[in-house]
Design brief:
The protein is mainly beta. It is 7% helix and 38% strand.
Length: 424
């Protein structure tokens, strides 16, 4: 028989262990319980990696039959992906709308027209510059940047230089403006990121704003913007920003530490275990130190242009071209690589000279999702064989990538937002 006092000791020890386990088991991206925080914000590709390990999505759907279509709502056009706050899904729409929809039924909770008049902390001259901006014809538009949320606010960037923080009820918290000559011919599409309480915006130059007040903290003119979104990494306790153009910038003070470590015009670099991967026509893997010193581990090359960001899983780097060709490379190899999968046509033959896919590869649970501009989504296993599981069709697609929460997937097409999941 266990003594009475020892029973109490054991009971409290078990309770303490249970509390500790609950505290340690924080919900991960894709979990139905995940909520964005300043430490784990939700923006482009979730956390930038395109990984939603906590999700368990359905792999088949049809608008024609209604199979697994929970709801769909007209929202307007944009290349930006949706983001999730927990109970709501946030999307942008051209030319200047930010919309908040209820995840349960797609009802619009609020929408905000983001006009230069909202630049109350900016002088009239800059408001006029914002008002007169015109996106390049056939370019990215005004609202191509995916917003980001830390669970307290939604941070949105427009191509005309407007930067705003908006609370989860649609009220503007602060506003700022970037007055810089555009350096990308098809407009501006790089999405904002958050790290260490700073909102990082890559618009011609690289800017850091205080996420709470909107005060500009620093600007780096040595790391010019591209179309792709930068990524934030932490190495030995030092936070760094890695740009598609191959620049390494320290978050704390905006100092440029290195340049030319890779080259990606359209896509976001991804990182795993201290190694950085670029996945466009010229692919490479680079071991990076906190001081910005880079050692190239391998290189590879593919023929056609790439618009969607790469995906890492279980030792394999996946990337896909604008023609819908899938490539896979051994993440841990050395030297000059040949692909494990070489230009597999996911959407069949295409006679078009224009890109047929702008979206990024996205993994949810045990599957990878890749969508064409025509609305065809291929689902395959993230293995070296990349076995196809399903092929689904919606009336149209766009350059946005889907996001996930539990069994639900939120995907935008040309002008609608869909929730795909078990119908209740």
């Amino acid at each position: 028989m266990i003594p009475f006092d020892l029973k109490h000791v054991l009971r409290f020890a078990c309770l303490a262990l249970a509390v500790g386990l609950n505290q340690a088991a924080e919900p991960v991206f894709g979990s139905v319980d995940f909520r964005p925080t300043p430490e784990h914000p939700f923006g482009f590709r979730g956390d930038g990696s395109g990984q939603f390990p906590g999700a368990s999505p359905l792999t088949e759907w049809s608008e024609k039959t209604g199979l697994n279509i929970r709801w769909s709502v007209p929202i307007g056009k944009s290349f930006a992906s949706p983001i999730l706050t927990g109970k709501d899904v946030i999307v942008t729409a051209e030319p200047n709308l930010l919309l908040c929809l209820d995840c349960t039924n797609g009802n619009i909770r609020w929408k905000l027209e983001i006009a230069p008049a909202l630049l109350t902390q900016i002088d009239e001259k800059k408001r006029q510059i914002a008002a007169e901006y015109e996106p390049p014809k056939d370019g990215a538009g005004m609202m191509a940047a995916t917003p980001i949320t830390d669970g307290k606010a939604v941070y949105v960037v427009l191509a005309n230089g407007m930067v705003l923080a908006i609370d989860l009820n649609g009220k503007t918290l602060w506003n700022a403006f970037i007055d810089a000559e555009q350096n990308t011919g098809y407009g501006r599409s790089a999405s904002p990121i958050l790290c260490s309480g700073k909102l990082i915006v890559h618009m011609t130059n690289l800017y850091a704003f205080d996420a709470t007040t909107g005060k500009q903290l620093w600007m780096n003119a040595e790391a010019p913007s591209v179309y792709g979104t930068p990524t934030a990494v932490k190495i030995d306790g030092v936070e760094l920003i890695i740009t598609g153009g191959g620049d390494v910038v320290r978050v704390s003070d905006g100092k440029l530490l290195a340049s030319g470590i890779g080259a990606a015009l359209h896509t976001t670099p991804v990182m795993s275990n201290g190694t950085l991967y670029y996945g466009e026509r010229a692919l490479n893997a680079v071991h990076l130190t906190a001081a910005g010193k880079a050692k190239e581990l391998w290189t590879a090359a593919i023929t056609n242009e790439v618009f969607g960001s790469p995906l890492l899983h279980d030792g394999v780097l996946f990337t896909a071209t604008g023609k819908g060709e899938l490539y896979a490379f051994d993440q841990n190899a050395k030297g000059e690589l040949t692909p494990l999968i070489d230009a597999r046509k996911l959407f069949g033959e295409s006679e078009s000279n224009t890109p047929i896919a702008y979206s990024s590869l996205t993994q949810a649970g045990n599957f990878v999702f890749y969508t064409s501009n025509a609305g065809v989504t291929i689902v395959f296993e993230p293995t070296r064989e990349a076995k196809q599981i399903a092929k689904n069709v919606l009336p149209s697609g766009c350059g946005a990538s889907p996001v996930f929460a539990g069994r639900e997937m939120y995907m935008r097409t040309n002008d609608k937002l869909y929730c795909i999941g078990p119908r209740q």
